[in-house]
Amino acid sequence: MPWQPRDLMDTKREFVELALQEGANRRELCRRFGIGAKAAYALLARYAQEGDGAFKPRSRRPHASPLRTPAAMEETLLELRRDHPAWGGRKLARRLAELGHRDVPSAATVTAILHRHGLITPAASAAAQHWQRFEHPEPNALWQIDFKGDFAAGQGRCYPLTVLDDHSRFNLALQACSGVATTTVQPHLAQVFQRYGLPVRLNADNGAPWGSPRLPGHGLSELSVWLIRLGIRVSHSAPYHPQTNGKIERFHRSLKAEVLAGRSFADLQQAQSAFERWRGVYNHERPHDALDLQTPARRYRPSPRSYPQTLPPIDYPDEDTVAVVTWNGEVTFKGNKLRVSSALLKLPIAFRADATRDGCYDVFFCHHRFMRLDLSALNAAG
Q: Which end of the chain is less crowded, N or C, counting CB atoms within 10 A of the terminal residue's CB?
């Protein structure tokens, strides 16, 4: 099967970087990218000989030019800055070196050149802060998911759906959506899972379509039920504390500064085209300060947990008491009618006794504990 024409350069580059990861399953990558092994190995061979030239037209401008003068290097630097006006000295110096330029100035010199040309304001310098976030030690241990607000796109609204890997900051999805309903989000997530596999945990904000432990239904929305059935651990940011989803919030700042600021889009398709161009730059070209100026793609590798063709069966230990949720999200347990979640309609849940406290039960859906039940307190209130 040939390479698909959509985002051809970025798709090839993404495939190569993932295929060259230590322990990569290249046959599985070919399946996820929808290409044949012959085409994949031909691309890897070209990349070994030509580097990034394997992804680009033969007529592209060469990466290296040993005869360039310092003035020409400065102009190259300024051109790269014009392409990426939000990048600072460290990112620009790193990217020029990655592109093969010789005698690249130091990051401090690049910053001085930007100042001299009036491209860094004093306010921007004061706002630049370096600090270390906690990160998970491996890719796919945690993904963060959210919408980047919304904005007008022609006659409707655009809701950018974003998914980010916590360890590598690799952007797994940047999709221009017409709304935030589960019927919109779930197909896009399925495509992400098909290409990159399943994460161990997915952290979301509170509210639709993710659900929230503080809302009726114990945080179990239709979307979260689907994710849990896939074996993914679902968690939510602390209410009014968006920093618990901090990496994706920082990603949104970059998206706003480098794509959305000062622009308008005629429709969702135009917005998506802009998103796809920038996503390739962000993942494969833009050095990331928090990654020691590596690109996210160099730290990411696909999950070994493949997306299943069908949802796995729901099983519980023999010692659990299992009940099926009926209409209105209700279930009966030991003579008590309980309201759990309408998203669990016709699905089995399990009541697991607490060995340390009589009359107390933890209530599970698959691996997810979503409710604590104290029968003595319930009977006293009744």
A: C
